[in-house]
Amino acid sequence: MDKKLPDNMLRAALARNDPAAVELIWDRYAGDLFAYLLVVLCSRHDAEDVLQTVFVRIVQKRHRLAKAHRMDAYVYRIARNEAFRFIGRRKKGRTIEAVTESWLIVPEGKPEPNDLAEQLQAALVSLPQPQREVIVMKIYRQKTFLEISGLLGLSQNTVASRYRYGMEKLRTLLENLTL
Amino acid sequence: MNEKDTQNEQIEHFMRKAHLHKPSPELKKRITAEAAKAWNQTSPELSWQVPVRRLLVSAAAAVFVIWLTNCSSDYAVARWRSGGLEIAHQQSLDPDALPEIPYNPLVRHLVSTSRKPSITEASALRSYAERMLLILDEAQQNGASKPPTPAEGRSYLLPTQSGHDSYS
Questions:
Q1: Predicted complex ipTM exceeds 0.85
Q2: For chain B, what percent of residues have pLDDT higher than 70?
Q3: pLDDT grade for B66, boundaries at 50, 70 and 90
Q4: pLDDT at position A96, please?
Q5: Buried/exposed code over A119-150 (b: 16+ C-beta within 10 A; e: otherwise)
Q6: A71 and A124 in one domain?
């Protein structure tokens, strides 16, 4: 999230009922929310669709957002609820979930970028979702355990243990690649 | 422990070779347009609307619960009205016909109490009417100069029941 943009500025725009707040919400939360939805849904296309629903929900609940003690946690809660609602609908629609879509990218110039991205993605997908979201928030969004615990509404110990167990699994899965 | 930390750092470093997709400018355009549309469609929620809405919902829920309770009790009573209650009431009035049950003396006492003559019984009404006539006759004979005082502080208009001081 864009730390430079203070909460007060966004709260003031929401209090004024100023539509420009949509841009502020985007600048502040879109990157993190998109990453979170990518990790939970494991599909770029689905993450884009759900992100749109999340933003509409945020706008509809903007008055509650303005009064929320932690705006970031409130926004994450909306994203989480929408993601799980989407997963529920997806499970009804398809019996076998085929995750073939790439949502992790490796910059050009690295050796065999596609293979690396695929293997990393496969390793992350094989993790349980709670461990996956903590690892991705920590590694790809540079969040601390304290920040993650605040965003997900968990204790810091729970977040740390999820990270530890997830990393242990990743170590075995990625052993051949790292060595 | 140190070895594990080092391995974790290696994996983190390795994973950072890749990165997640970022939301594209086209996606931003699409989503902000949708959000702006939603912004215009939803009216600003005034602060007093929330408690009023909650109150209305609570009242509606209470009315529904009361209605549901009434319906269920009517349904339960309807089963007994179809003859079962009458038979049960008649049977319970005969203390000798009662089977051996706990607290038998108490049950017998309750049954005998329920047999007390009430004001609606024919004999009580007849005695009440006779008393009234007697009072009226006495009043006519005495020239109705002064109204008769009730004996022992009781009203003549109220019939008395034998052996009981009250109707309760």
A1: no
A2: 56
A3: very high
A4: 45
A5: bbbebbeebeebbbbbbbbbbbbebebebbbb
A6: no
Radius of gyration over alpha carbons of chain A, in Å?
A: 17
Residues 60-99 of B with CB under 8 A from A: none
Nearest neighbour of B19 by CB, restricted to A59, A60, A140: A140
B34 touches chain A (CB under 8 A): yes
At residue B57 the predicted structure's pLDDT band, cuts being 50, 70 and 90, is: very high
Residue A142: domain span: 108-179
Q: Looking at residues A130-158, what average pLDDT do you find? A: 91
CA A62/CA B51 separation, integer angstroms: 17
Tell me the whole-structure pTM to 2 decimals. Answer: 0.61
Q: Which residues of B touch A19 (CB under 8 A)?
A: 36, 39-40
**A155 and A86 within one domain:** no
Hey, of A16, A26, A119, A161, which one would you mutate to test binding to chain B, going by the most B CBs within 10 A of its CB?
A: A26
Distance to chain B for A128, nearest Cα, Å: 17
The alpha carbon torsion through A169, B12, A138, A110 (nearest 10 deg) reads -120
Specify the 3-state DSSP secondary structure of A175.
helix
Question: Which percentage of chain A shows pLDDT scores above 90?
Answer: 34
Statement to judge: residues A25 and A88 lie in one domain? yes
Instruction: Evaluate whether B151 touches B160 at the Cβ level (below 8 Å).
Output: no
Domain count, chain B: 1
CATH code, A37: 1.10.1740.10
Provide the 8-state DSSP code for B164.
B
- Substitution target from B11, B43, B49 for chain A, most A beta carbons within 10 A: B11
